[in-house]
Write a structure and sequence with these properties.
Strands 1, 2, 3, 4, 5, 16, 17 and 18 form an eight-stranded mixed beta sheet that branches. Strands 6-9-10-11-12-13-14-15 form an eight-stranded parallel beta sheet. Helix 4 crosses helix 7 and helix 7 packs parallel to helix 8. The radius of gyration is 21 Å and the shape is globular. It is built from 13 helices and 18 strands. The two termini are about 40 Å apart. The chain is α/β, with parallel strands linked by helices and about 475 residues long. Helix 8 links the parallel strand 13 and strand 14.
């Protein structure tokens, strides 16, 4: 039995802040006690004086090795989970992809194979449904039993991931029966494709037009539509990467009616804007993602939504493509730029900066980055908190350290940073994953294969 003691820190969970010592035994939290009140012995003592002791982050939306637009996301499960650990995230939930014409099982098995033995931290999977039919609907029941309890569908990307309203309704009805949670990428892809073709015909090919054709109203329309379909099905719905205030208004209205409707946003929508998409010399392509970055005035609404709990989760939608050789595929045609941004390493620090800036409280930081994603996706109690019996996924965080975000110093396998030159206060110092130190005073001591697949229960957040 190995025992680790973390002493003298301010323990912050979604529920409380307390100066406490944390005792870890065999990969789990064994006990907490007010600092100095217990005479515990341990094999290893970590001094967290003047530091925060927080749960490891849970990033419920990543895409490692995702095939997209003729290329692949540049982070493997090995590089991506290592970068996550550097950023204080100890669990990711990635997306296995069903290809059209194939079974859910075939897609899931392919993702198990990609991740097995590669991950530095623990991981789970959602399932992308891109071919809703009698067979795949039946398979959903088996996946829920196996710990894959959430399913993502798209109103976007016709011909690739798109599902029509009937398919979405059937998947939601199935989820209402088996306890699964439907996640929706909500943009009107049929209408967007018309606007894309019209823009290209006018010679509007630069990256900024990606944001202009993917209109906020088309995000709002699709958000409204999937909420109504979920109401008809009697199922909860979770809207991913909410970027527009008009879409958030649809979610807020539904929640005011007491509906089980949930929303996620991402750091890029809180800190970046269409100003980035408009950067000259094709630099704007670095910021092409979907839903797209919005004009800066949308940020205030998203921060307010996080404070009022109309948005419950901040995930990254980490899906990196290098500028050289990948983003450049779209030179002369913005519609060919691979969609996605790197961010799995930056989320916890950016959200701590939001605490410093007064947007959210410390406990809300932990709630939206650790506790609620764990609850939403059936991991809470094991992940997302510091409490006896929980996995010892613990971060010692220095709230006073200052850093400048840069591609030169990050650990993601991508040749640029979406936050290049941004100064932030706060930095991860030491990270434990199931009690094993994987970042030791800013040195990586983990290994590929330490991370385990984590089967998930059904959502614990219906309320």
């Amino acid at each position: 039995m190995t025992r680790t003691l973390i002493t003298g820190g301010l323990v912050i969970t979604a529920a409380e802040e307390i100066h406490a010592d944390v005792l870890i035994e065999d990969g789990r939290i064994a006990a907490l006690a007010s600092t100095g009140t217990q005479e515990w012995t341990a094999d290893r003592v970590i001094d967290a004086s003047h530091k925060y002791v927080i749960p490891g982050g849970v990033d419920a939306h990543t895409h490692m090795e995702l095939p997209f637009g003729g290329t692949f996301a540049s982070d493997s499960f090995e590089t991506g989970t290592r970068a996550a650990a550097w950023g204080g995230t100890t669990t990711i939930v990635d997306f296995a992809v069903q290809s059209q014409g194939h079974s859910l099982r075939a897609g899931l098995d392919a993702w198990y194979a990609k991740a097995d033995g590669k991950c530095a931290i623990d991981y789970g999977f959602h399932m992308i449904l891109s071919d809703v039919n009698d067979r795949s609907l039946k398979e959903m029941d088996f996946l829920v039993e196996e710990g894959i309890s959430s399913f993502k569908l798209f109103t976007a990307y016709p011909g690739v991931f798109y599902s029509d309203d009937g398919q979405i309704l059937r998947a939601m009805q199935k989820a209402a029966d088996n306890g699964g949670l439907i996640m929706m990428h909500a943009e009107n892809g049929i209408a967007i494709d018309v606007l894309v073709q019209q823009a290209l015909a006018r010679g509007e090919t630069d990256p900024r037009y990606h944001g202009e054709v993917r209109k906020a109203l088309l995000e709002a329309e699709a958000t409204h539509r999937v909420i109504k379909l979920s109401q008809v099905a009697g199922a909860p719905v979770y809207v991913v990467h909410v970027s527009a205030r008009e879409a958030l208004a649809e979610i807020a209205r539904a929640r005011d009616e007491g509906l089980p409707v949930f929303g996620e946003t991402c750091p890029q929508y809180l800190f970046l804007s269409t100003d980035n998409l408009a950067e000259p010399d094709f630099e704007g392509s670095k910021y092409v993602c979907s839903t797209p970055l919005r004009p800066r005035e949308h940020q205030a609404a998203l921060w307010r939504g996080l404070r009022t709990n109309d948005l419950q989760v901040v995930s990254t939608d980490h899906c990196p493509f290098c500028f050289v050789g990948q983003k450049e595929l779209g030179r002369g045609d913005f519609s060919k730029i691979p969609n996605g941004l790197p961010g799995v390493e930056n989320r916890m620090d950016l959200l701590h900066q939001a605490v410093v800036d007064g947007h959210i409280t410390r406990r809300r930081w932990i709630e939206i980055a650790c506790a609620t994603p764990a609850r939403m996706f059936g991991l809470y109690g094991k992940k997302g908190t510091i409490a006896p019996g929980a996995d010892a996924d613990v971060v010692v965080y220095d709230p006073a350290a200052e850093q400048v975000m840069s591609a030169e110093t990050h650990h993601m396998n991508v040749d640029y940073s979406a936050y290049e030159g941004k100064r932030v206060t706060g930095q991860v110092e030491t990270v434990l994953s199931r009690g094993e130190v994987v970042i030791d005073e800013r040195k990586f001591t983990g290994r590929a294969g330490h991370g385990c697949y984590v089967p998930r229960g059904t959502t614990q957040y219906l309320g």
